[in-house]
Amino acid sequence: MNVYAIEILLQGSFHIKATSNEQAQRILENNCSNTIDGQEEEWFSDNLSRYRPRASLSTKFTATGPIAGATFIEVPKRTVHAAQDRWGRYWHGLRYPYPPLSKEHEQVPVYSTSVDLTTTAFIRVRGIDAAEAVVTKFNQMALDLLSDNSRWFSKRALEDEGGSDLPIALSSALYLVGKSEGCQLCQTWPERPYQGPEFVARIDEFL
User: Fold this and answer.
1) Model-level pTM?
2) Distance (Å, whole) CA 151 – CA 149
3) By mean pLDDT, which of 7-11, 87-91, 137-141, 186-190 is the weakest?
């Protein structure tokens, strides 16, 4: 059995607390090209909107296939271990700019959009043709990265000696590309404009 790696695209919902649509746009644009640690559960939230963290991803993602121009590369098993270990370069921004559970935090609207993220998929098969078949089966699959954290960010599927129905694992490094094509940021909670303290808006000047 060989292990092959290929860069794939994931799509999911990204939520930002911001005082206006323009501010949410700027925050998202300024924070693209960062890498999120998919094993840090604090990045994911399906809570009610008013209690969402400063920025969060929904737990549901769709795998949309390899990125344009990506090719399979045979890699040693230790590469999979390295790609799934925690490492110091992960991005921790946008998580705690507002005091947790403060009334000011709860008043700030939530803007949401679909975003593209890339990560590395590792497939353990006997050849590139078999690897392509696994990725084809994986394409358009719905992934729950939080509930199935131990599944997608685990090496167990690659150590199953061919017994796994889908011998694929993901790197926990999720690279935030930006908004998905044709998608816009829209206020998803509440319907009224922000009417809270001005200091909340000033905090975001530094993001």
Assistant:
1) 0.87
2) 5
3) 87-91
